[in-house]
Amino acid sequence: MVELEEQNYNENQKKFKEIKQKLEDEINKNIEIIHVGSTSIPSIKYGKNIIDILIGAKDKKEFAEIAKILESINYIPSDKSKTEEYQFFSSTKEETKSGDIHIHLVLKDTNKYKEFILLKQYLLENKKEAIAYSNFKQKLIAEKINDRKEYKRLKSEYVDKIIEKINKANFLS
After folding, report:
1. Burial, 157: exposed, middle or buried (Cβ in 10 Å; 0-12, 13-18, 19+)?
2. In this structure, how many other beta carbons lie within 10 angstroms of the beta carbon of residue 45?
């Protein structure tokens, strides 16, 4: 079941900074650790209240090293989403809930990495779009889309349309 709640941007920023410091201490490399997702956008009021973190690896070797470190500090990898350029990690095996941490380990020189950055930048700069995205998620719940897979599929389609819009507008430059 998917549940949305009102998010507290300032609290989520504080949590992110604490998590980021722990990750920096463990990984002990000069890498980018970026707060992404709904909790990183002040104008998105509703979401699952999960801290999404993007970690950029410079190459496949560093990617593998970081993945190993994340597992050693109890982040759980998902084999379903794993590719040569992307690996998803979660702070829990159970169904995702408020306060959980999701880590997206991505090779930096890939479209996937750029899309995470562009989406965040776009939503920060376009408050109306951020609010529309928040409202879309609420609408899914109101329409009784409680199956997690279906919710994720519909939300991903929505995000893909935003990314397509960004690319068409040459927001990439």
Report:
1. exposed
2. 18
Residue 168, number of CB atoms within 10 A of its CB: 9
User: pTM to 2 decimals?
Assistant: 0.90
The model's pLDDT over 103-116, given as tens digits with 9 standing for 90+, comes to 999 999 999 999 99
Question: At CA 132, angle to CA 131 and CA 137, rounded to 5?
Answer: 100
DSSP label at residue 144:
T
**What is the distance between the alpha carbons of residues 133 and 164, in angstroms, rounded to a whole number?**
15
Mean pLDDT of 43-67: 94
**Which residues neighbour 70 within 8 Å (Cβ) at sequence distance 6 or greater?**
77, 89, 103, 105
The average pLDDT across 52-76 equals 96
Based on its alpha-carbon atoms, the radius of gyration of the chain, rounded to whole angstroms, reads 16
pLDDT of amino acid 25: 94
Give me the chain's average pLDDT, please: 90
Token pair of 83 as six digits: 């590719």
Does pLDDT of 48 surpass 90? no
Give the span between the Cα atoms of 21 and 130, in whole angstroms: 27
User: What's the rounded Cα separation, in Å, for the pair 2 and 13?
Assistant: 23
- Phi and psi torsions of 77, nearest 5°: -80, 150
Neighbours of 81 (CB within 10 A): 11
